[in-house]
Amino acid sequence: MLKLITCNKSNYEKKLFSYVNNTSMNNKKRSEIVSNIIKKIKKNKNTALIKYSNELEHNNFKNSKSLKVTPEEISNALSQCSQAFHDSIKLAVQRIMSYQKKLMPKNLYYKDKLGIKLGSIWSPLASCGLYVPGGKALYPSSVLMNAIPAKVAGVKRIVITTPANNNQLSPEILVAANAVGINEIYKIGGAQAIAALTFGTESIKRVDKIVGPGNSFVTEAKKQLYGYVGIDSIAGPSEILVIADRHNNPKWVAMDLLSQAEHDEEARAILISNSKDFIKKVNKHLLKFFKIY
User: Fold this and answer.
1) Fewest CB atoms within 10 A around its CB: which of 10, 149, 151, 158?
2) Spatial distance between the Cα atoms of 32 and 25, rounded to a whole number of angstroms
3) Residues 85, 137: one domain?
4) In this predicted structure, which of 10-24, 156-170, 278-292 has the lowest mean pLDDT?
5) pTM of the model
6) Residue 135 in this model has a pLDDT that exceeds 60
């Protein structure tokens, strides 16, 4: 499973940079595609949004109304998930909520030596859009980790966008959204979702800020639209570098590598080690994990 590159070989640097930079598309091409999507969404709004959602995400939406998740869909999702899953989400909500409340910044007021009152006030945004990855993997955790800080801060309107497949969302995503009280959910993803949240459409109101991880197209869209809308950061695709020798636990190292590699085909997981035997052990654990999952 691991691609082995030996540092004392003459073509070492070439192979390493080839691996690190080997993406499905060059940055210039991706930037042009995203820029075009943004322009079309800004100009044609729902018409373009439906077109891209159908063409790029394997859906068959007929109108803008079908993009929004209905109460019936949420109800069905609640019944589809196991009690164990509901319990785990409930526990996660409680723990994340407790932690985020302790991070809440406090307003500051004081009077200086001249008798002048000074201070600073923290105010919540009016609205926030959460991008939740979908498609090849499920991330209900992304719902909780992005929604709960906004809830604790007092954001009144929280919107979720997540890509659908065959017009459907995974029930796990909807259960997580329901657990934190979010019912404005749209079955859209990619750069088109970021553009729709930024400029708004006939059926989707714009938001003040967009947060949440996504693939390289989502990241590029956030990068291009920063300034029109607030964003959290320019993140992804994921990468990880682990430096380990024979004294480390190969199973743990394999888990660390997979923790980032699972996010995207373009994620880069690199292990640096001076022990071929250790590398073989890590590789063996990777193969075991792939059989399990």
Assistant:
1) 10
2) 11
3) yes
4) 10-24
5) 0.84
6) yes
